[in-house]
Every structure is written in C-alpha cells, then in structure tokens.
C-alpha cells in the first residue's frame, strides 16, 4: 500500500529542521561566552601570580634595604662621634651633653640618615630600578624630644625616592620604645624603616580591573646596639718542664685546683705537690709545691713557703692521694712512737692538718732493713675512705677526717706462699715477703705481694659500707716475675679501652703476667711487651699511668725513659720521638734542658698533657700522643658586651668570633659560656646549653644572639689543642688576639 504524504507532514519536517539549526547557534554562543570567561580567569590568575611574586621581591628588597640602611646609619654616626671637635664621644647621651648638644645630635642624625638613604638607593639600583630625581628629605626638627633628654618616639626623619617606573620608596628614621618594665628603664632605639610602593605588573587582567598598588615594608634596628667590640685575650702555650726543689726523691706529682672549673672536662690546676721522700735512715725528705700555670713567668715557681720539712719518714714506693679540698694523705713512720700510719698535710694552710695529722696503724718492725721499707703501702681511696696496707699483710681503713673505720688490723687472708701462709716469717735469703704495689679498678683493688720466688696477686673488695675489706678471689701466684722495685703494676685494657685485668711487668727481666678482674683468673702475659719495652731495663723503676684506657706509660726510673704501650694496637707505641717510637727520653728537650728526670710517677694535668716527676726532683711534661711537648692550653675570661650607642645605656651580646691566629695554630678548639666564672653553662632561649662548642666546625663562631636579656656576668672558657708538627707544638710563645663581638642589625617587622 502506497503511503501518501500530505502538506502537514512536510511542514512538521521543515519545523524540526529549523529548530535544530536554532539550537546549534545557541550552543556556539554559549561556548564562546564560556571561553571568554575562561580567558578572563586565566588572565587574572596569571597576573595574580605575578603580583604575589612582585610582592615577595619588594619585601625582600625592603628587608635588605632596612638592614643595610641601619648599619650604614650606625657606621656614619660613629664616624661623626670619633671626629668630633673637642674629643670623641661614645654614645648619643654623651653627644647631647656637649655644649650645643641638640644641634650636634641633629647634625649627626642628618649625616647618618643621608648615609642610610644612599645605601638603600644603591641596593635598589642593583635590582634594575633607576632614579633620575634625588631623594626628598624631611628631617626631624628636634630629634632629642621636648625634654632634651629622652629621645622622642614621635620624632622622625623621612626621605622619599621616586623611581623612573613610578615606584615610590619611603625611608624613615624612627624610634621604637624598648623600655623594660621589669627593670624600670625607659629607652628608645633608632630604627630604619623602608617602604616600597609600586603598581602591580599587569599582562591580561586590564580588561577586568586596574592594576593594584603593592606596598611592602620592613623595619630594622641595631639589636639595641649594633656595635663591633674587640676584647683582647692571650693564650699562653703549655708548660714543658721545670726543676723541683727540696731533698729526697720526687716520686709522684699531686695536682691541686684551687679554683675548680665549672666544666669538669677542662682541667685547670694551679699547683703541683709531691712528697719528696727518702727513708734509708740517712736523711729526711720534704714536701714540695710549685705553680702550674699557663703563664711562663709563673709556671714552675715555688708556692709560698715551699719546701716544707717532713716530720715523718716515708716509703720508697708510696701511693699518695690528694682530696678536692687540698688534703694530702701519704704513708709515714713516726720513729719516736714506733708506729707506721697515715699522714695528712693541708695544701691550703701549708701545714700538717689541724686536729689529727698522723694516725698510727701498725707497729714498727724491729729490724733495720725492714724499717727501711716503712712497712706500709697506700692509701687507696674509695667512696671517701682511705685503705692502707702494711707490707706484712695487714689492712686498715681511715676516713678523710682522719678517723679509723672498720677493723684497723684485719689480716688479709692468703698472704704468703702456699707453703707458708703467714707472711710474717723471718727473712729468707735476705728477702722478705711484702706487699709491693696495687692497682685499683673501681671497688676492686689488686695488691701484688713480692716473694723471693715470684709474685702473688690478691683480689680485694672495697665496696663494704663499714670499711671492711673483703676478698673477691683466691690469690694467684706467678713464678715468672722477679722480686723487688723493678716490678711495675698496671691495669690491662682491651682494644675498646675497657679495663679487663691487672698486670705486672718486670722491667729488668722483661717478663710480665696478668690476671683477669672480670672472671678472676690467670690471664697470661701480654705478647710483645717484652720486646716492645725492652730498653726500660734498669735496677729500679717507677710507677705507671693509663691515659683514657688508650695508652699506658711506664716510668723507667734510672733508665731515664718513659715507655709507651698502645692498647688499641696491643703493642708498643710507634709515634714517639725516638726511632722506635715507644720511648720518651726526659732529657731530650722535654724538660727544657733541665737534664735527666729519672721518672718515677705521673699525673694527667690536662687533656693532652701528662706531668711527671722523678728521682732528681725534676718535673717534666709530655703529650700522650707523639710524646712531644704538651699542646693542651686553656683560657678563661669574662666577656664584656657591647655598649649601645643610642643613649639607652644598655649592653648587648652578639656573635663572638675566635681570633683567626688561634684557630690557625690549633688542632681543636672548644668553648663554653658560663654564667659567672664558676657558674653553670649559659642556656639559650631554645633551651640549649652553650658548652663544648666545636669552633673549628663553624669557623670560630659562638652565637650569643639567642640568649635571655640580662643573662648575668658571662665568662668564656677556651680549651685549645695546638697543632703538632714533627712531634712538636706549633706555638711556644703567647698568642695574642681579639675576641670580636659583632652585634648585627635585626629585622623587627
């Protein structure tokens, strides 16, 4: 069937076609509008980013301009102060006090402000701004205020710079109120403000709006000061040695610090004491004291009244102790009383201790040879108690107040040979069994007992609270060691500087043997010790000293040598000045050509400085690394802050710089800032204590800008280790320099 189309059907079709074309046109219009809107948004976003960038650039320019402007203002006004007719002044208050002071202040202000504006303009020109017209100045008519004294906070001077691109820069010299309500001080501080106003850069957004005006500013002051202060300091070289005085043998130095330093890591001893003793019945010794100081003019001079005559006979190999209060304790014999015991001498009064100066402990043996040994050994200090031992095996405890504690005649079990446990037997072949030496590791004391066939090691525990002495192991006998004064007792360490035992080294035979203090047993000899220190052999040796558990030094006595053993390599040292590197000869320049010291004993006088004493009463010193002259030096001095130049009368600290000449000669340099000469370390506003600052790591800078206001009396302590070249310190004369305290401008807003 054929379909027929009428007129209405064609009309509907035509209507649909026309409607479709109309809708298509509307979509095109909407699309164009949306695209235009997107272009507007993109244009605005692009310019908005440019405005933010421009604002940042202007802010940085204002920051730099204000900081440099206030520095220029300060430099120029100080130059004005220095060149003032009639003599220089230091502060604005002194300038104001001059005749016609207000005019002088006004002139200085104008001169300083012009310098500040010129500096800011120069900086802006480096950022591609050009200035055809000069700045327009408006100076304050009365910069001192209406009362002629306080600076008027409303007094300002301004300068306006108009750049060729239309930028307007306003520079203002103003005052800010820096009064301190806590202290009740009223003061104002000069500041330099820089404001930069410029139309925003515009690329696409002008079809929407006009470019905004971007205004950024900054204000800087001189941290209430802005000064550069120089403080002279002198670092004296470490001492190298000096002769002693008094008769008798100098055995072991005792160091006394009359002014304890707040930092226990820094040694600052004032005096060195020693008991010069001889007890062979022919002569009496003396107590000697000499100054230990970094000043070459003072170092090595006798203390007041030294030497002091000994009223007691003392032993050939004593162990002496000095308390932090300056009390010297040593073994002695009173022949009139027929007793041996403990003697106390006061380094402060330069006399025997008041009250009880001698406490008898053991009866004196009757035979002459035995009395030549004094028959006593010690004291060993532990927890405020002093332990003393007779050579025939008795022990006693004495407090620092010279009172008995514990059992005064408690027999130490096991002394003697296995066949003859009682050591108080008649002499055999001219020899006696006797306690000869001891080595203390914490609460453990290892006593060595000489016999005619070998050496006993005895382990004792000193930890008892009532002063009693306990045993921590059965005696251990070594038949490889000889008998006599050529046995040197020392602590054994592992490669990590941890104490693990006690050894005896016979410097004549070269034999050695050790016991373990960890498990208490025979640990055998140290391989290489015999060959490594073979040159120490003489008929009499001294004592030993361990330095940080890294090295042990052996006093070679009549060999005039100091031997060195390295625990890190478990072998003799190799860096000494002699060919083998294991020895120091005490007459080889180390004692400043004072001759043989015949070393007997040592003490650590500073981090890298050991002081020794010997038979000839000659003190000598050496660096434990390299065995050359000491290179450890220290200085303590008060730091004077910079005085403000704005008339406020206040003082401020800034950045301290160590003199470059001290940095140049030093291997390490550390600084600690304390409140008061002997006070605690200064703590900054972030809670960080300013102590042990490694100056070589930061160019010698100590930053004191972040410390509390009015911190108190500040002191600086410098600990310096001089560089070593060919085994010698690079400086032997005092090094003079200046601590530079630089207070820089501070951005306030």
Report what the structure shows.
- The N and C termini lie far apart (96 Å).
- Among the domains are: 200 residues, no CATH class; 120 residues.
- α1 packs across α3.
- The protein has 6 helices and 49 strands.
- The strands form 12 sheets. Strands 1-2-3-4-5-49 form a 6-stranded antiparallel beta sheet, covered by helices on one side. Strands 12, 13, 14, 15 and 16 form a 5-stranded antiparallel beta sheet that branches. Strands 21, 22, 23, 24 and 25 form a 5-stranded antiparallel beta sheet that branches.
- With 749 residues, the chain is an alpha+beta fold.
Defining traits:
749 residues; alpha+beta; six-stranded antiparallel beta sheet; five-stranded antiparallel beta sheet; elongated; disordered N terminus
Summed up:
The chain is α+β, with helices and mostly antiparallel strands and 749 residues long. Among the domains are: 22-221, no CATH class; 230-234 and 633-747.
Element layout with pairings:
Layout: H1 7-82, H2 92-97, H3 101-125, E1 136-138, E2 157-162, E3 168-177, E4 188-199, E5 213-221, E6 228-235, E7 241-243, E8 254-256, E9 271-276, E10 286-291, E11 308-309, E12 321-322, E13 327-334, E14 339-346, E15 351-352, E16 358-363, H4 368-371, E17 377-382, E18 385-389, E19 394-399, E20 404-411, E21 434-441, E22 444-450, E23 455-461, E24 470-471, E25 476-478, E26 487-493, E27 499-506, E28 512-516, E29 521-524, H5 529-532, E30 544-547, E31 551-555, E32 561-566, E33 571-572, E34 583-585, E35 599-606, E36 609-614, E37 618-622, E38 632-638, E39 642-643, E40 651-652, E41 655-657, H6 660-665, E42 666-675, E43 693-694, E44 701-703, E45 714-722, E46 724-725, E47 728-729, E48 735-742, E49 746-747
Antiparallel strand pairs: 1-2, 2-3, 3-4, 4-5, 5-49, 6-48, 7-37, 8-9, 9-10, 10-11, 12-13, 13-14, 14-15, 14-16, 17-18, 18-19, 19-20, 21-22, 22-23, 23-24, 23-25, 26-27, 27-28, 28-29, 30-31, 31-32, 32-33, 32-34, 35-36, 36-37, 38-45, 39-40, 41-44, 41-48, 42-43, 42-45, 46-47
Helix pairs in contact: 1-3
């Amino acid at each position: 069937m054929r379909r027929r189309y009428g007129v209405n059907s064609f009309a509907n079709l035509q209507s649909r076609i026309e409607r479709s074309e109309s809708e298509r046109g509307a979509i095109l219009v909407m699309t164009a509008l949306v695209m235009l809107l997107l272009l507007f948004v993109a244009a605005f976003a692009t310019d908005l980013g440019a405005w933010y960038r421009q604002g940042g650039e202007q802010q940085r320019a204002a920051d730099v301009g204000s900081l440099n402007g206030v520095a220029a203002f300060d430099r120029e006004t100080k130059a004005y102060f220095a060149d003032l007719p009639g003599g220089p002044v230091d502060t604005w208050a002194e300038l104001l006090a001059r005749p016609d002071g207000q005019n002088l202040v006004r002139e200085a202000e104008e001169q300083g402000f012009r310098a500040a504006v010129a500096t800011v303009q120069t900086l802006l020109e480096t950022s591609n701004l050009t200035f055809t017209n000069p700045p327009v100045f408006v100076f304050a008519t009365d910069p001192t205020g209406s009362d002629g004294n306080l600076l008027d906070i409303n007094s300002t001077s301004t300068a306006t710079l108009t750049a060729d691109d239309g930028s307007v820069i306003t520079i203002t010299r103003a005052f800010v109120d820096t009064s301190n309500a806590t202290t009740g001080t009223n003061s104002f501080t000069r500041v330099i403000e820089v404001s930069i106003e410029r139309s925003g850069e515009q690329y696409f957004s002008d079809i929407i709006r006009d470019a905004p005006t971007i205004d950024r500013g900054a204000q800087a002051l001189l941290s209430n000061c802005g000064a550069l202060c120089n403080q002279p300091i002198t670092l004296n070289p470490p001492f190298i040695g000096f002769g002693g005085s008094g008769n008798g043998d100098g055995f072991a130095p005792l160091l006394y610090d009359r002014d304890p330093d707040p930092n226990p890591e820094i040694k600052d001893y004032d005096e060195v004491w020693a008991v010069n003793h001889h007890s062979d019945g022919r002569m009496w010794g003396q107590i000697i004291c000499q100054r230990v100081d970094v000043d070459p003019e003072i170092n090595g001079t006798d203390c007041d009244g030294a030497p002091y005559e000994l009223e007691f006979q003392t032993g050939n190999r004593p162990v002496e102790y000095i308390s932090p209060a300056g009390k010297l304790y040593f073994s002695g014999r009173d022949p009139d009383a027929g007793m041996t015991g403990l003697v106390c001498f006061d380094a402060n009064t330069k006399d025997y201790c008041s009250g009880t100066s001698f406490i008898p402990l053991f009866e004196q043996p009757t035979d002459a040879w035995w009395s030549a040994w004094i028959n006593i050994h010690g004291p060993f200090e532990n927890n405020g108690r002093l332990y003393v031992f007779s050579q025939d095996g008795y022990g006693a405890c004495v407090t620092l107040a010279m009172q008995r504690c514990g059992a005064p005649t408690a027999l130490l079990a096991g002394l003697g040979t296995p066949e003859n446990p009682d050591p108080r037997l008649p002499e055999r072949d001219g020899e006696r069994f006797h306690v000869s030496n001891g080595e203390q590791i914490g609460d453990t004391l290892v006593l060595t007992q000489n016999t005619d066939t070998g050496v006993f090691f005895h382990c004792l525990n000193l930890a008892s609270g009532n002063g009693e002495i306990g045993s921590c192991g059965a005696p251990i006998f070594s038949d490889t060691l000889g008998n006599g004064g050529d046995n040197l007792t020392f602590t054994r360490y592992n490669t990590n500087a941890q104490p693990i035992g006690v050894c005896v080294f016979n410097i004549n035979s070269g034999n050695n043997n050790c016991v373990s203090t960890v498990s208490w047993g025979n640990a055998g000899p140290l391989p290489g010790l015999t060959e490594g220190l073979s040159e120490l052999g003489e008929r009499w040796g001294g004592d030993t000293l361990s330095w940080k558990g890294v090295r042990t030094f052996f006093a070679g006595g009549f060999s005039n040598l100091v031997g060195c053993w390295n625990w890190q390599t478990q072998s003799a040292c190799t860096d000494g000045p002699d060919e083998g590197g294991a020895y120091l000869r005490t007459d080889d320049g180390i004692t400043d050509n004072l001759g043989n010291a015949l070393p007997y004993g040592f003490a650590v006088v500073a981090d890298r400085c050991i002081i020794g004493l010997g038979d000839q009463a000659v003190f000598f010193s050496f660096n434990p690394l390299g065995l050359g002259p000491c290179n450890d030096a220290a200085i303590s001095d008060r730091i004077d802050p910079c005085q403000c130049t704005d008339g406020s009368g206040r003082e401020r600290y800034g950045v301290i710089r160590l003199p470059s000449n001290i940095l140049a000669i030093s291997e390490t340099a550390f600084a600690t800032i304390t409140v008061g000469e002997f006070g605690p370390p200064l703590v900054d506003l972030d809670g960080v204590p300013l102590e042990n600052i490694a100056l070589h790591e930061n160019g010698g800078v100590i930053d004191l800008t972040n410390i509390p206001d009015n911190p108190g009396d500040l002191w600086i302590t410098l600990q310096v280790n001089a560089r070593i070249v060919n085994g010698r310190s690079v400086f032997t004369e005092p090094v003079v320099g200046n601590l530079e305290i630089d207070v820089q401008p501070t951005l306030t807003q």
